[in-house]
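Appendix C: a fully annotated inverse folding record. The material below is reproduced so that readers can follow the format used throughout the book. The structure is listed first as tokens, followed by the designed sequence.
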């Protein structure tokens, strides 16, 4: 697929830098679509063609990337009027970079397969800065042949591209990745609140934790870079998105007849943060409401 034509739908917080890195790294023909004008203009400056509508981007592409907020948006783009299923053709590949419920992912893959389109779920992990730098971790659910076809493209946006299994398995791993992250951030918020109340300097606490067995990616990034300076900007991964992804984890647990009390606690804390008016802020903002119930 060395000369494949690429379509990219969704140029948001993560989608735009991913698109830019794949476009720049591959040198392939790109057609892009988004509802916002500014990212379209920036991609056009880099040589991408801007589609007037969904139908146009689907019809002009061999591989179609989706980078959307969540399941409802992915379902609409794939199954909606003039969407991927309606406008697509046999032999095309659809690569969903979004975080989407596992059952929906497998349903969409089945619907597309009936028309001869191949599908891979390829949700991304790590931060917005990692998306900018092309150092994401991407977890792929697909058959081995499709994974082999798309891995070189994904490698322009990521330092880790992992084949997690058949369709849906990428979403399983990503959802559980986020579940562990949310629970860890809650634990960090609780440690910060309790430590300060007990008389320990907040910076000393986190720096010392980073030298012991409590060290983690979440501590060094979400803890030290957001919680310590009390900096939770909009435009990063917001509380509303974290609630969505945590809900996906609980739905997955229910689907396999298991309980996840830690995830339930994390979801409760995220909802408390949203109720306090922090739905659009970077989700470690839950530290501001920890211990106040």
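Designed amino acids, in order:
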């Amino acid at each position: 697929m060395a000369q494949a034509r690429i379509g990219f739908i969704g140029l948001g917080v993560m989608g735009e830098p991913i698109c830019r890195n794949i476009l720049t790294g591959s040198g392939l023909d790109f057609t892009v679509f988004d509802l916002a004008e500014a990212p379209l203009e920036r991609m056009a400056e880099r040589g991408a063609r801007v589609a007037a509508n969904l139908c146009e981007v689907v019809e002009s592409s061999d591989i179609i990337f989706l980078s959307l907020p969540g399941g409802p948006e992915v379902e609409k783009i794939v199954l909606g009027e003039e969407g991927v299923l309606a406008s697509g053709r046999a032999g095309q590949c659809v690569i969903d970079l979004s975080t989407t419920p596992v059952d929906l992912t497998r349903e969409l893959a089945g619907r597309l397969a009936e028309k001869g389109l191949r599908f891979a779920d390829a949700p991304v992990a790590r931060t917005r800065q990692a998306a900018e730098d092309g150092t994401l971790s991407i977890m792929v659910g697909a058959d081995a042949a499709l994974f082999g076809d798309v891995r070189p493209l994904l490698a322009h946006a990521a330092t880790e591209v992992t084949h997690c299994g058949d369709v849906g398995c990428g979403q399983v791993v990503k959802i559980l990745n986020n579940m562990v992250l949310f629970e860890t951030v809650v634990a960090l918020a609780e440690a910060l609140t309790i430590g300060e109340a007990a008389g320990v300097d907040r910076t000393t606490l986190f720096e010392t934790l980073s030298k012991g067995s409590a060290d983690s990616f979440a501590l060094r990034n979400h803890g030290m870079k957001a919680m310590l300076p009390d900096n939770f900007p909009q435009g990063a991964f917001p509380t509303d998105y974290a609630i969505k992804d945590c809900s996906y984890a609980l739905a997955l647990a229910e689907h396999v007849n298991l309980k996840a009390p830690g995830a339930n606690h994390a979801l409760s804390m995220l909802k408390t943060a949203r109720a306090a008016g922090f739905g659009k802020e970077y989700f470690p903002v839950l530290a501001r409401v920890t211990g106040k119930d």
